[in-house]
């Protein structure tokens, strides 16, 4: 008996959702985190912090549970969080949103991305333009939506898009241009020129801009410029963000999407049948977080910059060529200088050799383009300073 169609299997296998035997493909993050546990290596692979976030936010969640906020919240999100998100967009970026119609709370940025792609894509004639390397859920969700993926490469060492390649990728078939700024895995912050070109191309070809800005407060040298603030962009842009990275609450899965009411409604129509709602007591807690004073947000970005510098110095001392990130949790290093020709093999051996876990950049690239990234490795800097210093000491063993 065959319950799963052959066509779906081919699509899913092509997008890396399932392995050759049809079982769910283990992600490289799961594989590397398991290796970290088995070997006792420092895990600079998966991007989650090893410290708790602000006490005010944690206390607010405990108070919400004690106060009985434990049942289904409203479908769009609790009113104080919707208001806090709208307030945050005005306070930091001057963007005006109607909290009742232009904001939607989701189960993390991941659900926001999935629901947006499923809502706005019509089928195999639609294309979604994605910059690569890219966050792993992008290609998977594009495959689930049935659309075609078109990728624009970001290249070592500054990882800015080539504007001619971008222009060639966007056509009248483009339904969505999917931006991630600041960018995971490269740490790039897109130039004003690149953002301006994306808006112009979206306008020319009547595409929607979907922007994943989960690292909006992790820009090392601010301020962050949301693409929705560029002239003419807001009316065709859905902005996605999340509390996980800013407030070090990645396990809470509170995300949101904001933009024109008509687009947000389309996302809600899908989202209500994915999770319906989530994180009832965490939603008011994140509202508290979004309203923290400026000093908190300055601290988040200053901490990240310091951590990236500690990591970068350690990687350089160990003999890597290092790309200087402008934002995000991550730093990309080229292991070619250490005689490495295959970063995936290098990363599988690294826990034994040096007691550190990292992720090969090929994990974030489509098959056709993996060769361009074959010696590059992503290290996460979102760990305690002592851990990063320890990692630097351990990595120095690679020199000898
Ligand atoms: C971590 C991350 C996400 C996922 O965010 P959640 O809120 O945990 O779902 C989405 N996009 C990028 C680029 C990320 O790094």
Automatic annotation (TrEMBL):
<dbReference type="InterPro" id="IPR004839">
    <property type="entry name" value="Aminotransferase_I/II_large"/>
</dbReference>
<protein>
    <submittedName>
        <fullName>Aminotransferase</fullName>
    </submittedName>
</protein>
<dbReference type="InterPro" id="IPR015422">
    <property type="entry name" value="PyrdxlP-dep_Trfase_small"/>
</dbReference>
<dbReference type="GO" id="GO:0030170">
    <property type="term" value="F:pyridoxal phosphate binding"/>
</dbReference>
<dbReference type="InterPro" id="IPR051326">
    <property type="entry name" value="Kynurenine-oxoglutarate_AT"/>
</dbReference>
<keyword id="KW-0808">Transferase</keyword>
<dbReference type="GO" id="GO:0016212">
    <property type="term" value="F:kynurenine-oxoglutarate transaminase activity"/>
</dbReference>
<dbReference type="InterPro" id="IPR015424">
    <property type="entry name" value="PyrdxlP-dep_Trfase"/>
</dbReference>
<feature type="domain" description="Aminotransferase class I/classII large">
    <location>
        <begin position="42"/>
        <end position="394"/>
    </location>
</feature>
<dbReference type="Pfam" id="PF00155">
    <property type="entry name" value="Aminotran_1_2"/>
</dbReference>
<dbReference type="InterPro" id="IPR015421">
    <property type="entry name" value="PyrdxlP-dep_Trfase_major"/>
</dbReference>
<dbReference type="GO" id="GO:0005737">
    <property type="term" value="C:cytoplasm"/>
</dbReference>
<keyword id="KW-0032">Aminotransferase</keyword>
<comment type="similarity">
    <text>Belongs to the class-I pyridoxal-phosphate-dependent aminotransferase family.</text>
</comment>
<keyword id="KW-0663">Pyridoxal phosphate</keyword>
């Amino acid at each position: 008996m065959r319950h799963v169609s052959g066509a779906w299997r081919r699509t899913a296998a092509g997008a890396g959702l399932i392995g050759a035997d049809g079982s769910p493909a283990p992600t490289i993050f799961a594989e590397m985190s398991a290796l970290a546990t088995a070997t006792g290596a420092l895990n600079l692979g998966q991007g989650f912090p090893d410290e708790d976030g602000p006490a005010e936010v944690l206390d607010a969640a405990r108070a919400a549970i004690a106060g009985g906020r434990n049942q289904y919240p409203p479908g769009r999100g609790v009113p104080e969080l919707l208001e806090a998100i709208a307030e945050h967009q005005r306070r930091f970026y001057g963007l005006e949103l109607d909290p009742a119609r232009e904001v939607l709370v989701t189960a993390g940025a991941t659900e926001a991305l999935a629901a947006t792609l499923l809502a706005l894509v019509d089928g195999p004639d639609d294309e979604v333009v994605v910059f690569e390397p890219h966050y792993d859920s992008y290609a998977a969700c594009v495959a689930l939506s049935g659309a075609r993926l078109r990728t624009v490469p970001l290249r070592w060492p500054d990882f800015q898009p080539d504007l001619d390649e971008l222009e060639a990728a966007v056509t009248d078939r483009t339904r969505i241009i999917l931006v991630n700024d600041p960018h995971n895995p490269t740490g790039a912050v897109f130039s004003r020129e690149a953002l301006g070109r994306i808006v112009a191309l979206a306008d020319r070809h009547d595409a929607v801009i979907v922007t994943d800005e989960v690292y909006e407060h992790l820009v090392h040298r601010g301020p962050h410029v949301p693409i929705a603030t560029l002239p003419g962009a807001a009316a065709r842009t859905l902005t996605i963000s999340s509390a996980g990275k800013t407030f070090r609450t990645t396990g809470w899965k509170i995300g949101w999407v904001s933009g024109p009411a008509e687009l947000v409604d389309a996302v809600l129509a899908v989202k209500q049948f994915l999770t319906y709602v989530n994180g009832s007591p965490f939603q008011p807690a994140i509202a508290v977080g979004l309203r923290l004073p400026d000093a908190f947000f300055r601290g988040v970005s200053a901490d990240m910059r310091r951590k990236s510098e500690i990591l970068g110095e350690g990687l350089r001392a160990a003999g890597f060529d290092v790309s200087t990130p402008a934002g995000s949790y991550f730093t990309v290093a080229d292991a070619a200088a250490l005689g490495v020709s295959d970063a995936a093999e290098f990363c599988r051996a690294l826990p034994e050799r040096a007691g550190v876990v990292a992720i090969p950049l090929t994990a974030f690239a489509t098959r056709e383009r993996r060769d361009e990234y074959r010696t590059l490795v992503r290290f996460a800097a979102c760990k305690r300073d002592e851990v990063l210093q320890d990692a630097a000491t351990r990595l120095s063993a690679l020199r000898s």
